[in-house]
Amino acid sequence: MERKNKACWNCGNYKAYYTKGLCHFDRLDYGLCRAKKETVDKHGECVFWRNNYGMREFREEIAKKKLNDILEGIVEIRQILFEEKEEKQINPKGR
Predict the structure, then answer these.
(1) pTM for this prediction
(2) Which residue from 7, 65, 75, 91 lies 20 to 30 Å from 32 (Cα-Cα)?
């Protein structure tokens, strides 16, 4: 099925530009087209458009791995806190 909206912002070749704000980075309305090697408007269209499903899947896999690492760290902290709580119940005065 042919996509009707092949805007640059939805292209695998497009990399948005950002400016630094006070508390976060603001995305601009233009960015780099890696195929053309020039700055383009995010609403523009060109013949080099390609989907970015592969990149989305790649980022999703990385996010899942990082979340799993964080979850393992939280489980370890939970276990340490649980053991300390049990120890305090056994020895309430810290003897």
Answers:
(1) 0.53
(2) 65
